[in-house]
Specification:
Elements (H helix, E strand, L loop, with lengths): L1 H15 L6 E7 L14 E5 L3 E7 L8 H5 L14 E4 L17 E5 L22 H14 L6 E9 L1 H15 L6 E7 L9 H13 L6 H7 L10 H4 L7 E4 L5 H6 L11 H17 L9 E5 L12 H4 L1 E3 L7 E3 H10 L11 E3 L22 H40 L3 H11 L14 H8 L1
Parallel strand pairs: 3-5, 3-6, 6-7, 7-8, 8-9, 9-12
Antiparallel strand pairs: 1-2, 1-4, 2-5, 10-11
């Protein structure tokens, strides 16, 4: 009960708290580039200049593998015509140094998604009426950053993204980092990028996508060994990660709502049937069993809580959600803390078991007493029942108060009447004394009613 109360208090605080300090980035279109968005328009990037660290972040937004699914995508994910000149971004882009100390002063680059190909398309001519040139867009953005001297004074490049952008960063990480000077450190930050197999919609979409997007330089090492029938598995994190040589950090939620939706499970949690819970627990099992493959690498890290969320790094979830540490190494860490410690490579810094920090709680949105803390509050069925019963409880209390008030008023009225109205004994005493009779003579057995009447006459 105490944990639920904490959730409600946190929800109220979050509703009224001021923004942590989102950064404003300005759009720059790649006018001279040959790379194209789906609709043939020019791609671009948003830039906020800083120093020391360069963050290049790929936007997410799913993908499409058929003409019908591509036609159904929003226009802003297929071309640059509707992009605003300025964008405000929070989380890893935030200017608030107290919440985001590592990236608040960095040079931050946000690359909008307009290729619908998980950033691996490399097709020269259009297919199904669209260009798929995700790889080329990444190369064109990095080339423009060099031309603008953005790399000057930079000692660390963090190449990452959210969702499809995170997966795109995973696929392109070695290709991007291999083209940098040896003196420039390069790391990957992959947010909600750990697809696991579902033998359903996601695998079918991966098969269709690889056929439509064309040959991919980024996926080549995996495709060469996977074979024709298993090529689509190269788009899934546990299958592709062993081919990546560049150090990276990956975040994946155990109840990722995007992967759950692909399995037919929708939020909110209180509506989940027993069958939906089984599907959710199966996803949790897959995530928890595959992320530890990273623990064998001293240059990789992983983070996983139990929130029914997707990306963390583009919102305050980046520093708000905390996962308890195993074996009491420390109390709990946020994704921001793990990323900062891992990217700084501080000597003697706390290392959460080989860089892998996974919540052991088995339920979605675990309360702090049992697991993760800071997950956005999602009411359970019990919470909703309590809310529904609350008006009835208040009404019952009001009725009881009114009934008690009526009882007290009635009691006061009766007492008041008794005090104002004389009793028969009082009447008798007053009558006898006024006529010269002693009080004991007023007893009906001692009174001669005839003589009394004569005296009165």
């Amino acid at each position: 009960m105490h944990g639920r109360l904490d959730c409600w208090v946190c929800l109220l605080v979050l509703c009224f708290r001021a923004d942590a300090g989102p950064a404003t980035l300005r759009l720059h279109l790649l006018e001279g580039s040959h790379a194209r968005c789906n609709d043939g328009s020019k791609p671009g990037f948003y830039l906020r200049e800083g120093s020391g660290v360069l963050l290049v972040w790929l936007e997410g937004g799913g993908d499409c593998g058929t003409q019908a699914t591509c036609d159904a995508r929003p226009a802003a994910l297929k071309g640059s015509a509707h992009w605003p000149q300025l964008r405000q971004l929070d989380g890893i882009f935030s200017d608030a140094e107290d919440a985001n100390p590592f990236f608040a002063t960095a040079t931050r680059v946000f690359v909008p998604y307009c290729s619908s190909d998980s950033w691996v398309g490399n097709r020269e001519a259009p297919a199904a009426g669209y260009f798929f040139q995700g790889e080329r867009i990444i190369s064109a953005v990095l080339e423009e950053l060099r031309n603008r001297s953005v790399f000057e004074g930079i000692d660390l490049l963090v190449f990452g993204g959210c969702s499809a952008g995170g997966r795109g960063a995973l696929y392109n990480l070695d290709r991007v980092c291999s083209g940098l000077p040896a003196t420039l450190r390069c790391r990957g930050f992959l947010d909600a990028a750990w697809w696991v197999r579902d033998e359903g919609a996601m695998e079918q979409g991966a098969k269709e996508g690889l056929q439509l997007w064309g040959p991919s330089e980024s996926l080549a090492p995996c495709l060469a060994t996977a074979g024709e029938h298993a090529a689509h598995l190269c788009l899934f994190g546990p299958h592709f990660a062993p081919y990546v040589r560049t150090p990276f950090l990956v975040h994946e939620e155990q109840f990722d709502y995007f992967m759950l939706s692909k399995r037919g499970v929708q939020r909110p949690v209180f509506l989940w049937s027993p069958e939906a819970w089984q599907l959710a627990w199966e996803l949790q099992r897959q995530v928890k069993s595959t992320l530890p493959i990273i623990s064998g690498r001293r240059d990789a890290a992983a983070y996983s809580a139990t929130c029914t969320q997707h990306c963390f790094a583009e919102s305050s979830l980046f520093w708000r959600v905390r996962v308890p540490a195993p074996r009491g190494l420390f109390q709990s860490w946020s994704l921001e803390q793990l990323a900062r410690s891992w990217l700084q490579e501080l000597p003697g810094s706390s290392d959460p078991v080989g860089g892998v920090l996974i919540d052991d709680c088995s339920d979605a949105n675990c309360p702090e007493q049992r697991g993760s803390s800071g997950c956005p509050f999602e009411p359970s069925l019990r919470d909703l029942l309590l809310l529904a019963c609350l008006p009835l409880v208040l009404l019952a209390c009001c009725i009881l108060l009114l009934l008690r008030r009526r009882w007290l008023l009635g009691r006061c009225r009766r007492r008041f009447r008794q005090e104002r109205s004389p009793t028969p004994q009082m009447l008798g005493a007053s009558f006898g004394e006024a006529d010269g009779f002693p009080p004991h003579a007023m007893n009906s057995s001692n009174i001669d009613r005839t003589s009394l009447e004569q005296q009165e006459w």
